[in-house]
């Protein structure tokens, strides 16, 4: 491999890495892109408190009116502190009022 082709390969890879770190990944993008983007922009990268799926702070957004947060279990319910959940849990409606902790009883219908 000539030095020109090595330089070209390194240039293309460098451009890809730079773009991956600056372009916010769509929800369907591979997890490594989300992790790279989140960490390079100072967002947290933690497991979802409901399903354990790794998720980043940059992924917090409500989806079609469904909440992407749940009450923080570390604080009393009246504290109104919330923590984020992953996009998958948000899409199936597990956030906000749709969340019911396992320790809580379901209200009578």
Write the layout of secondary structure elements.
Layout lengths: L2 H20 L8 H10 L4 E3 L6 E3 L12 E3 L10 E3 L2 H5 L18
Antiparallel strand pairs: 1-2, 3-4
Question: Which structural class is indicated by helix and strand composition?
Answer: alpha+beta
* Alpha-carbon distance between the two ends: 72 Å
List the uncertain runs. 98-109
The helix fraction, in percent, is 25-40%
Number of strands: 4
User: Number of domains in the coordinates?
Assistant: 1
Neighbour order of strands in the largest sheet? 1-2
The outline comes out as: elongated
Mean pLDDT: 75
- Rg over CA atoms, rounded to whole Å, is 19 Å
Order of helices and strands: HHEEEEH
Considering the chains and any ligands shown, give keywords for the structure.
about 110 residues; alpha+beta; two-stranded antiparallel sheet
The gist of it:
It contains 3 helices and 4 strands, in the order ααββββα. The chain is α+β, with helices and mostly antiparallel strands and about 110 residues long.
Please give a structural write-up.
This protein is α+β, with helices and mostly antiparallel strands. It has one domain (3-98). Helix content is 32%, strand content 11%. It is built from three helices and four strands, in the order ααββββα. It has helices at 3-22, 31-40, 87-91, and strands spanning 45-47, 54-56, 69-71, 82-84. A two-stranded antiparallel ribbon has the order 1-2. Strands 3-4 form a two-stranded antiparallel ribbon. The radius of gyration is 19 Å and the shape is elongated.
């Amino acid at each position: 491999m000539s030095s020109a082709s090595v330089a070209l390969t390194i240039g293309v890879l460098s451009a890809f890495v730079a773009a991956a770190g600056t372009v916010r990944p769509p929800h369907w993008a591979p997890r490594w892109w989300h992790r790279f983007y989140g960490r390079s922009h100072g967002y947290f990268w933690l497991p979802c408190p409901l399903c354990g799926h790794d998720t980043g702070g940059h992924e917090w957004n409500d989806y079609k009116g469904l909440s992407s947060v749940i009450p923080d279990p570390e604080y009393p319910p009246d504290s109104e502190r919330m923590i984020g959940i992953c996009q998958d849990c948000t899409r199936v409606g597990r956030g906000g009022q749709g969340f019911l902790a396992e320790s809580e009883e379901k209200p009578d219908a």
